[in-house]
Design brief:
This protein is 44% helix and 19% strand. The protein has helices at 63-83, 105-118, 132-141, 156-170, 187-198, 211-216, 223-228, 245-250, 267-275, 283-286, 289-299, 301-305, 309-334, 338-347, and strands at residues 3-5, 8-10, 13-21, 24-30, 36-42, 51-52, 55-58, 89-96, 122-123, 179-183, 202-206, 219-220, 233-236, 255-258, 279-281. The radius of gyration is 20 Å and the shape is globular.
């Protein structure tokens, strides 16, 4: 159990609770009657080793559920940053509350205040249901934002999709023209589908927007068909926890590759899939395009601002392809899952227990 403190006011935000969970601190702040923001980060985060992770916004069953997801996602960010040695540690910001907030500036004010309270030890960017326009407003209030704001030629979501595609190709046999199915056709999934289509692969896609697949020139399928249609690779680009134990018991791709953090709802769901012979390339191996962009922007802003999308995509694809092939080669050699190899690799660069 975490050790907590509660009830302290911090200007426009009110600290409801702060808990320590092993190597992580989770703080929850209220900023409207219906909205909170939970911030999870490695406790060691500092101005010299800052936490980095996006801000997502959903309506959760409870404030506790939002804080729990923030912790899980911060742990995912630790794995990415450690595996790719970015110079950051793991953090995540999670807003809980209705998405139809009339005055969005309340969100911007609250996020800026949270970042200000951490005094250069945390950086954020956009994630699910937050946008670069939101991050521009936050940065105007407090400049601890990494979201390619000074280089509009680069979209970090597109770069993430390019990296996921590179990871996907690492799972294929030489000369193979696979059947690919993409779950979620937003900016990241859309880029994966587009690159797979351009490579001559047979590509299907599912999205809550029926027109998304047609716009990308790929076959539209429903969610059940995507998981049970016998595709060579299923690419998960939608929500965390999309593969439940029930889905894992019936799905039948050869490989699962994910841009969604923590795509398995439970450890048992992942075990079920792997015991059924389905291979899984861990999310943090495949989906680290944005953190690679953030690290480059943070280390050398002048260089980053001179790059175009093609240059960033090439950098991300080569970096993720190299790491993916390394993980898969070691996995095959030792007869263990890619998860075992990847976990050992990131743990070598982090004091946080694997």
């Amino acid at each position: 159990m975490g050790r907590g403190e509660a009830g302290k006011g911090l200007g426009m935000i009110e600290l409801m609770r702060r808990e320590e969970h092993g190597a992580y601190t989770v703080s929850t702040y209220r900023f409207t009657e219906q909205h909170t923001v939970s911030v999870a980060h490695e406790t060691r985060a500092s101005a010299q080793l800052p936490g980095n992770g996006g801000t997502r916004w959903l309506q959760y069953p409870s404030t506790e559920a939002a804080a729990a997801e923030a912790l899980v996602l911060a742990q995912c960010m630790t794995r990415k940053h450690s595996l790719y040695e970015t110079g950051f540690c793991g953090t995540k910001l999670v807003i809980d509350g209705p998405l139809d907030l009339a005055d969005r500036s309340l969100v911007h004010d609250a996020l800026a205040e949270v970042l200000r309270q951490h005094d250069g030890a945390l950086y954020t960017g956009c994630d699910l249901n937050t946008t670069s326009a939101d991050m521009r407003e936050v940065a105007a209030r407090y400049p601890a934002v990494l979201d390619s704001l000074t280089n509009p030629a680069v979209c970090t979501s597109t770069a993430t999709g390019s990296g996921v595609f590179a990871a996907l190709t690492s799972t294929l046999l030489p000369g193979e023209r696979p059947r690919i199915a993409v779950h979620g056709l937003g900016k990241v999934g859309g880029q994966v589908a587009r690159l797979a289509r351009n490579a001559g692969y047979d590509v299907a896609g599912f999205d809550v927007r029926p027109e998304a697949a047609e716009a990308l020139g790929v076959r539209a399928v429903d969610s059940d068909e995507l998981f049970t249609g016998g595709y060579d690779v299923v690419v998960l680009c939608s929500l965390s926890g999309i593969v439940t134990e029930e889905v894992a018991a019936t799905m039948n791709p050869r490989w699962v590759v994910a841009s969604a953090n923590a795509p398995f709802a439970t450890p048992e769901a992942q075990r079920t899939a792997e015991e059924r012979g389905i291979h899984y390339l861990p999310d943090y191996v495949a989906n680290s395009g944005a953190v690679l962009c953030d690290a480059l922007e943070w280390r050398d802003r002048e260089l980053y601002d001179a790059l175009d999308q093609a240059a960033v995509d090439q950098y991300v694809m080569r970096t993720i392809s190299s790491r993916s092939l390394q993980v898969l080669a070691e996995s095959g050699l030792r007869g263990v899952t890619p998860e075992v190899v990847a976990a050992q690799a990131w743990a070598e660069h982090s004091p946080v227990p694997a």
